[in-house]
């Protein structure tokens, strides 16, 4: 008889060789979990190498999912269940496994050669190395072949199905229906019925094996979470950026011109954009980062919505052109999908260390509006809003994402397209009295006059502009005036966009201020601390420039301010400088998101400090 | 001339003069180029509002301010990048890139070659004065070996680029050279460049009378120019000299000089073909001027028709719409796996 235990929150990590179908397995489990109405968050973890040798530690591909009957904001720090398809996956996954956590192991992969490559001097299944965990070694490869005995496929081909055996076992363990995955397999392999049959057989074999052998003493059930009704899909940050841009183009009734140069982790966005040409998206894979932004600026001058995306090193290369966009006051969207730096750094790993580069990394006084996405799905809204602001204010806008958001996926409630904010553009018209730098009194935006319009001929350029006329000017007073006007225009974006709301009480002991992809982690930590009765509130920034007016108000209402970041304290530096407050940092630079438990400890320490009479 | 030149309209050269004071040094070769451009533009017949001048940085790059059309003075070396975006956003515009030897061959070398290989329908006018003028006299990527300048007091040890050879190998479909002092020829070349559909490249030998005066003296002075310059004419042999009595032809890969005593026809000379399928011929031609003692060819080295980048880009867009239908946001959002929460 099946012993079912109810749990509220689970984290599973699937891990194996790049060729083991780990991402596919993870995605199937995710979809099934979403259909079972659990809230969830996922993190794919690919090896940096394109084709890493099989069995190596650096070739391990992982997929982590946290799901719950309550809110989930992160893919989880500690893992409840590790599915290790080879010794390297076990070696790499152990450090994040909970004490007494479950390990499902493909014992067939524990050959001498694989053990050696994973730095095991002895077989950990035999020497007690895994004491303290619930270990389930299963001959997954052999059992898969057995299940497929009657299928006309080679051994090598059959072995490719073994991920579904593992998935079948995990489905049993969490009382999941296999219907969605079976339906997916049949659709995916509709033209290769032998593969459809093999994969379905293997999936069922895995589940049946768990059931028949009573492999696990207990199975688990995670009750349904309260999820807003609607149609959902999984979306990665990079996909969401592309969707946000396309949605904005449709709403603005203009073409997007997307110029980009391949760079990890931003290349996906160019790939997505290139496949949506039927939305009037023009893409240019430019000869370099500089040409990519230059072409986008040219396209904006001629009436398209110019967009470019890159990562930190590419943003550095684009900075001179960004300055030109500031000077010529053209609409432009630049997206920086940050990765670990400096220099080439760790291209596949996440970091938030481009903040100061994005805010200040240009020659001269060249402020621009900067928005930071807080989750994979939020990338959609960040890109959309960036286009709106760029067009409304005739200004280049920087969008921050990072490697964690780019590859991470979460369920996205598909928005009602009619409900998206309108984007209206008013071009200068033929016959009007046009001055290139005449400004809208409210937004300070100059007017956009498109080449091809008779009578509006004008010249733009990087030389300082005379106010109103846009003629070249070296006049000292004019320069000061223009520097201030450009800065003031950016500040006025703050009156156009919504300020974020505080989470928790509007006054208290500790205020956590964060930005970008740390959102989920910080929210989880603060939620937990508040449940424990701690006086902690949370303010997550969306526009990094201009900063919300409420930020200062809140900062003054808390005894201490802590700023968690995946950098050495770049936002903290700004907060200290702007508000003269002794904000402390919580900084980790491991190429990974910060962990909830570590952050909680840091906040607790700050609360203690206060109690000790500071 | 195989290209289709649009008929002239009533626009006058004054219409293309902007209200800005021209601020080049007195005697600069740039004035002649500006004057010819203002003269030629009305003859080309493209309305002012459809003309866009784009430049980088340098003396030449001030040019857009002096033409009353749309213009964009961008950053150093990057005019081709901006031009690419402009042309893709609106292929109907007549796009002119104004650049110098430092701007397009040094800091912007990468953009120039990629512009050529894509065959974007734009016109590049390269003012080659073999010197950095705006920064007051440093050697440039076209300065000759041994050139003494402020930054090469012992003579330059950099070998110069041959801009014509460079853009030919990069795939420019119209390649020509002219000289600032020969205004009639320059005007003709500008018209040809404008009429050509595809990437047109024109190198203008331009005198910087302040920092590199007389760099092209031999090509412009009456005593020497006839022996130093070879005017290329489509369908005609490669003939030069005051008496038109000297000719060039290839002997294998070498250049052979001939003295003509009888009529040209009798000499059985090969004729210049702008649209020769073989790029090797144009390359051979482009290197002649580098050989001491041989004349420098000016005129059209190559003019061939290829599909332009913006044509291909528009075809892809139209093709995608034909295949998939115009983009529908709702359809896009629900593409892939979706699920419904009641």
Could you give a short account of the major beta sheet of chain B?
8 strands, mixed
How many strands in all of chain A?
22
Number of domains of chain A: 3
Assembly level? heterodimer
How many strands of chain B? 14
Shape of chain A: globular
> Any idea what the CATH architecture of the largest domain in chain A is?
3-Layer(aba) Sandwich
Strand adjacency order, main sheet of chain B: 2-1-3-4-8-7-13-9
What is the C-alpha radius of gyration of chain A, as a whole number of Å? 27 Å
Q: What proportion of the residues of chain B form beta strands (DSSP E)? A: 15-25%
Stated plainly, the CATH topology of the largest domain in chain B is called: Rossmann fold
Could you estimate the helical fraction of the residues of chain B in percent? 25-40%
- The CATH superfamily of the largest domain in chain A appears as Pyruvate-ferredoxin oxidoreductase, PFOR, domain III
Biggest pleated sheet of chain A: 7 strands, mixed
CATH class of the largest domain in chain B: Alpha Beta
How much of the sequence of chain A is in beta strands? 15-25%
> Which spans of chain A have pLDDT < 50 for at least 5 consecutive residues?
none
What's the SSE blueprint?
The complex is a heterodimer of chains A (614) and B (342).
Chain A: E1 4-6, E2 9-17, H1 22-35, E3 39-45, E4 60-68, E5 79-84, H2 87-93, E6 97-106, H3 112-117, E7 134-138, H4 140-147, H5 155-159, H6 162-173, H7 179-188, H8 193-212, E8 219-221, E9 230-236, H9 237-252, E10 256-260, H10 267-274, E11 282-285, H11 289-301, E12 305-310, H12 312-328, E13 332-338, H13 355-360, E14 370-372, H14 378-393, E15 396-402, H15 403-407, E16 409-413, E17 459-461, H16 476-496, E18 508-515, H17 519-531, E19 536-541, E20 543-545, H18 550-557, E21 558-565, H19 570-579, E22 584-587, H20 596-611
Parallel strand pairs in A: 1-8, 2-5, 5-6, 6-7, 10-11, 10-12, 12-13, 13-15, 14-15, 18-19, 18-21, 21-22
Antiparallel strand pairs in A: 2-4, 3-4, 9-16, 14-20
Helix pairs in contact in A: 1-6, 4-8, 6-8, 7-8, 9-10, 9-14, 11-12, 17-20
Chain B: H1 30-44, E1 51-55, E2 70-73, H2 79-89, E3 94-100, H3 101-107, H4 109-118, E4 123-128, E5 131-132, E6 138-139, H5 163-170, E7 174-179, H6 183-195, E8 200-205, H7 217-220, H8 225-228, E9 229-231, E10 238-240, E11 246-251, E12 254-259, H9 279-286, E13 296-303, H10 309-324, H11 329-333, E14 338-341
Parallel strand pairs in B: 1-2, 1-3, 3-4, 4-8, 7-8, 9-13
Antiparallel strand pairs in B: 5-6, 7-13, 10-11, 11-12
């Amino acid at each position: 008889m099946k012993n079912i235990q109810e749990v509220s929150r689970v984290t599973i990590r699937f891990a194996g060789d790049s060729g083991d179908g780990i991402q596919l397995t993870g995605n199937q489990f995710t979809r099934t979990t979403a259909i079972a109405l659990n809230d969830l968050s996922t993190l794919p973890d690919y090896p940096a190498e394109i084709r890493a040798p099989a069995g190596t530690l650096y070739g391990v591909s992982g997929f982590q999912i946290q799901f719950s009957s309550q809110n989930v904001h992160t893919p989880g720090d500690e893992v409840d269940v590790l599915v290790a398809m080879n010794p390297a996956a076990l070696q790499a996954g152990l450090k994040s496994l909970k004490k007494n956590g479950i390990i499902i192991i493909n014992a067939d992969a524990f050959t001498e050669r694989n053990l050696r490559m994973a730095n095991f001097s002895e077989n950990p299944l035999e020497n007690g190395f895994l004491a303290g965990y619930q270990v389930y070694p299963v001959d997954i490869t052999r059992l898969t072949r057995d299940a497929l005995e009657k299928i006309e496929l080679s051994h090598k081909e059959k072995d490719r199905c073994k991920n579904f055996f593992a998935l079948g076992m995990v489905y049993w363990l969490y009382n999941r229906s296999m219907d969605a995955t079976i339906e997916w397999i049949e659709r995916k392999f509709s033209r290769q019925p032998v593969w459809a049959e093999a994969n379905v057989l293997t999936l069922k074999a895995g589940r049946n094996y768990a059931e028949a052998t009573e492999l696990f003493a207990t199975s688990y059930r995670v009750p349904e979470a309260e999820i807003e009704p609607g149609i959902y899909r999984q979306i990665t940050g990079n996909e969401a950026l592309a969707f946000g841009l396309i949605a904005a183009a449709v709403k603005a009734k203009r073409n997007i011109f997307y110029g980009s140069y391949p760079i990890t982790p931003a290349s996906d966005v160019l790939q997505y954009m290139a496949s949506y040409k039927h939305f009037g998206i023009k893409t240019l894979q430019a000869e370099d980062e500089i040409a990519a932004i230059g072409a986008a600026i040219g396209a904006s001058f001629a009436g398209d919505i110019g967009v470019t995306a890159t990562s930190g090193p590419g943003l550095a290369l684009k900075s001179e052109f960004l300055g030109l966009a500031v000077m010529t006051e053209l609409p432009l969207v630049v997206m920086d999908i940050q990765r670990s730096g400096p220099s080439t750094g760790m291209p596949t790993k996440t970091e938030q260390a481009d903040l100061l580069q994005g805010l200040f990394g240009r020659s001269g006084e060249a402020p621009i509006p900067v928005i930071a996405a807080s989750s994979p799905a939020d990338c959609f809204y960040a890109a959309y809003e960036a286009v709106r602001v760029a067009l409304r204010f005739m200004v280049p806008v920087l969008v921050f994402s990072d490697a964690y958001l780019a590859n991470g996926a979460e369920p996205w409630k598909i928005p009602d397209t009619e409900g998206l904010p309108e984007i209206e553009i008013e071009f200068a018209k033929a016959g009007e009295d046009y001055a290139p730098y005449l400004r809208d009194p409210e937004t300070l935006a100059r007017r956009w006059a498109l080449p091809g319009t008779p009578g509006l001929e004008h010249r733009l350029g990087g030389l300082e502009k005379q106010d109103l006329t846009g003629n070249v000017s070296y006049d000292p007073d004019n320069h000061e005036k223009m520097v201030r006007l450009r800065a003031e225009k950016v500040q006025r974006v703050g009156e156009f966009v919504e300020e974020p709301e505080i989470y928790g009480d509007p006054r208290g002991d500790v205020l956590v201020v964060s930005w970008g992809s740390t959102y989920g982690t910080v929210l989880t930590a603060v939620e937990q601390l508040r449940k424990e009765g701690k006086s902690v509130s949370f303010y997550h920034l969306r526009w990094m420039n201009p900063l919300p007016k409420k930020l200062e108000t809140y900062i003054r209402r808390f005894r201490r301010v802590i700023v968690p970041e995946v950098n050495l304290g770049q936002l903290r530096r700004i907060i200290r400088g702007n508000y003269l407050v002794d904000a402390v940092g919580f900084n980790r630079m491991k190429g990974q998101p910060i962990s909830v438990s570590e952050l909680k400890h840091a906040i607790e320490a700050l609360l203690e400090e206060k109690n000790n009479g500071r | 001339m195989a290209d289709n030149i649009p008929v002239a309209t009533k626009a006058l050269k004054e219409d293309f003069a902007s209200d800005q004071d021209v601020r080049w040094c007195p005697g600069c070769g740039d004035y002649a180029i500006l004057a010819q451009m203002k003269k030629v533009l009305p003859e080309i017949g493209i309305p002012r509002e459809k003309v866009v001048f784009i430049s980088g940085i340098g003396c030449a790059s001030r040019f857009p301010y002096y033409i009353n059309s749309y213009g964009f003075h961008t950053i150093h070396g990057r005019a081709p990048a901006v031009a690419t975006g402009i042309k893709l956003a609106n292929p109907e515009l007549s796009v002119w890139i104004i650049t110098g030897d430092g701007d397009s061959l040094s800091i912007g070398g990468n953009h120039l070659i990629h512009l050529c290989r894509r065959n974007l329908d734009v016109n590049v006018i390269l003012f080659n004065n073999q010197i950095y003028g705006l920064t007051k006299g440093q050697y440039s990527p076209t300065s000759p070996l041994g050139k003494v300048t402020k930054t090469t007091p012992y003579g330059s040890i950099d070998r110069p680029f041959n801009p014509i050879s460079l853009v030919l190998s990069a795939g420019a479909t119209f390649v020509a050279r002219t000289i600032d002092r020969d205004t009639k020829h320059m005007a003709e070349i500008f018209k040809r460049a404008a009429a050509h559909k595809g990437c047109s490249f024109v190198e203008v030998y331009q005198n910087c009378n302040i920092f590199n005066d007389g760099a092209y003296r031999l090509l412009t002075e009456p005593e020497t120019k006839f022996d130093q310059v070879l005017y290329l004419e489509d369908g005609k042999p490669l003939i030069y000299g005051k008496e038109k009595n000297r000719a060039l032809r290839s002997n294998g890969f070498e250049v052979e000089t001939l003295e003509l005593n009888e009529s040209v026809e009798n000499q059985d000379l090969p004729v210049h073909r702008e649209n020769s399928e073989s790029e090797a011929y144009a390359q051979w031609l482009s290197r002649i001027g580098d050989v001491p003692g041989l004349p420098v060819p000016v005129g059209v080295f190559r003019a061939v028709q290829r599909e332009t980048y913006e044509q291909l880009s528009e075809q892809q867009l139209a093709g995608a719409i034909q295949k998939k239908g115009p983009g529908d946001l709702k359809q896009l959002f629900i593409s892939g796996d979706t699920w419904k929460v009641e």
